[in-house]
Description:
- Helices cover 78% and strands 0% of the residues.
- By secondary structure, it is an all-alpha fold.
- It has one domain (2-293).
- It starts with a helix and ends with a helix.
- The model has no long low-confidence stretch (mean pLDDT 89).
Amino acid sequence: MFIKRAISAITLLALQVLLFILGGYYLAGALLLISIIGSWELSKAFACKNAVPGEERVPLPAKKKVDYLDIIGFITILAYYIIMVLTKDIGYLFMVVACFVIAILFVYVFSFPKVPIDRIAAIAFSFIYCPVMLSFIYLTRSSELGTFLIWFILISSWGCDTFAYLIGSAFGKKKIFPVLSPNKSLAGCIGGILASGIISGVYGYFYVKNKLPEVHSEMPYFFLIAAAIGLVGGLIGMLGDLVASGIKRNKGFKDYAKLIPGHGGIMDRFDSMISTAPAVYVLSLLLILNSFNQ
């Protein structure tokens, strides 16, 4: 299992690095596919009944009938990513989100009481949590200095996960979330977040100094900003991991799918990156891009 998991992780990491370098249509297309699969996994998860506390967890059911709410979700995801690539304008993307929410509210009202409000809430959450939040990867890559900023997302998610696992395995005795995530330790959580901050600071210092001298001259202590982004990104990424774990425990299943050998589904592997992406985008906008453009 460890070898299978390691091979999958290395392969995924290599693909992500390649896509982050290429950007553009390649990155957008990959994110679109991941978003559709991830939202489908969440849709299947929310269709399950709530688990009985202490009951043994089982695999997530492989099939769920696609209904018109799922179809509306898939069409909206496609429209959202097309508009994002064509405009890169947050305002237009908010309009797509608003139209989606209004559409499913119409469905709820005109199909009442056939469609329960829980289903409406679930499809709305699935759309915002996976496709919308993942889209900030593309928005970060497409921004000014995006070829530099995009790597904070990778460092904050993969770096934090990796070092949290290594440090937790070596020193983790005190469990911090014994019910929600029994394998997570206090030492692992702290170590992963600190490692994300340190790696981000080192990356920010050496890359900016050598590749972006204009940024270095404007912000000589830029490595501290980079470290802060890494710390917050790692923390938010860990939060996303715990949210995905909480859904699994609420619904009583082990993995969202069997798509990725040794890892599970899209939501099992990209749970931390889903939360990290918007955090890095917002922090980069506030702490770097706005200051650099003044």
